Amino acid sequence: MYDFANSGYTTVVITAIFNAYFVAVVAGNQPWATFAWTATLAVSYAAIMCSAPLIGAYADAYAAKKKLLALTTIGCVAATALLVFAGPGSLWLTVFLIVISNFFFGSGENLIAAFLPELARGPSLGKVSGWGWSLGYMGGLMSLGACLAYVSWAQGQGQEAVDFVPVTMLITAALFALSSLPTFLFLKERAVPQPHLQGLNMVQESLGRLAQTLRHAKDYRDLRRFLVCTVFYQAGIQTVITLAAIYAQQAMHFTTQQTILLIVVVNITAAIGAFLFGHLQDRIGHTRAIALTLYGWIVMAGMAWAAQGQGLFWAAANLAGICMGSSQSAGRALVGLLSPASRRAEFFGLWGLAVKLSSILGPLTYGAVSWMTQGNHRLAILVTASYFVAGLAILSGVDVERGRGAALRAWQRESAT
To answer: What is residue 194's DSSP assignment?
Structure first.
């Protein structure tokens, strides 16, 4: 249900509506507008990168995942609602609110992911992760559908984007808050507090636990390699998530309504991809499933680059949806499989760090290419494909059985002490 709840934020704010509004209205379609959007997100992701391992270490030490999740949810909902004030002349206020809301969203995303190994045994991690991610796309569809209904009504009344887009931020915030309630009412914190390091405060203890993980990093060579792989292939995925609506409007000349419809359909195919690949992953193996999706991403980028009419672009977008749902859920499940039981939140914090680094690297690359080429979005999407190729090459060296064995030995070692 939390996957269902928080997906409205990323679908409406980051992917479908507000990003294009930021470029066209808040930044006034200036040559630097797309780069400004990607740079704003980069700042928030950098903040998550700095804090995620420490938050994860603290959550493990004090069994505080649920409490911290509540704080991040409140922060994201409040900052999203305040985006109702975004419009012409509010660039810096809008930048600040995007940084804050996305920081809380990303931090909460890491915390909820750390519950996964508590809810599913190893052989079913892919399946349960796929269920959650699939339901998440349904939540994104609900928020986007509600916003589309309002946008259609507002346009029928003769309103412009500056009038109706801010209201969609209130709709998104309200649905996030309501949909997250089942998580806080029914989800249990099954972790137990870890033995504390004597003579240290909470911050010092979190840093100390993180230092221990880094010292034992040599024991997690396959997890370490997969996190590097994650940085590369997620750079491509985060670029598509962040800039899909901008590409559709700037390169393919979609209207706002056409763009929203496109994202609605893509969310449906993404939900199908996440659900089906969750089962497939548990059958054929985690690395094979991820590799299959990366081949699909490479084909998608080529199709988007070559598309001259809307037909081929629609096909590319739906292929992206299938690959998006499957590769996202598969990556989360594999991190759960390679993480020792006593440090799940901490290792999902490291996973979050890798994803957020990719969220800086990929979109900034796209934004820089489009800026330097005077708005050549086709070349920018082609450059994005190189990240999927690099991720595929690195993934080939990940040995899941060896990595799982290292995680079990680490857990046994810590249990003994």
So the answer is: P
Contact 318, 264 (CB under 8 A): no
Enumerate residues 6+ apart whose C-beta is below 8 A from 323: 273, 293, 294, 296, 297, 300
Query: CA 102 to CA 106: how far, in whole Å?
Result: 6
Report the half-sphere exposure of 412 (CA within 13 A, side-chain side).
6
Model confidence pLDDT, tens digit, residues 318-332: 898 888 877 877 787
In the structure, what pLDDT confidence band is assigned to residue 216 with cuts at 50, 70 and 90? low
Distance from C-alpha of 404 to C-alpha of 325, rounded to nearest angstrom: 24
Is 19 a member of any domain? yes
DSSP letter for 157, please: T
Q: Is 352 in contact with 113 (CB distance < 8 Å)?
A: yes
Residue pair 286/126 in contact by the 8 Å Cβ criterion: yes
- Are 268 and 137 in contact, with CB atoms under 8 Å apart? yes
CA of residue 255 relative to chain centroid, distance: 25
Report how far residue 325's alpha carbon sits from residue 268's, in angstroms, rounded to the nearest whole number.
10
Residue 184 has pLDDT above 80, yes or no: yes
Which CATH number belongs to the domain containing residue 117 in this structure?
Answer: 1.20.1250.20
Full residue range of the structural domain in which residue 290 is found: 2-188+210-416
Find tokens 């190893």 and name the residue: 122
204 occurs within a structural domain: no
37 neighbors 238 (Cβ within 8 angstroms) = no
Residue 405 lies in a domain: yes
Least confident of 22-31, 238-247, 343-352, 387-396: 343-352
Sorted by sequence, the CB contacts under 8 Å of residue 351 that are 6+ apart come out as 110, 113, 227, 230, 331, 332, 335
For 345-391, the DSSP string reads: HHHHHHHHHHHHHHHHHHHHHHHHHHHHTTS-HHHHHHHHHHHHHHH
**Cα distance between residue 287 and residue 29, in whole Å:** 41
Q: 244-247: long-range contacts at Cβ-Cβ below 8 A with a sequence spacing of 24 or more?
A: 244/15, 244/16, 244/317, 244/320, 245/15, 245/16, 245/17, 245/19, 245/20, 246/19, 246/20, 246/23, 246/34, 246/37, 246/377, 247/304, 247/377, 247/381
* Per-residue pLDDT, 134: 79
Q: What is the domain count for the chain?
A: 1
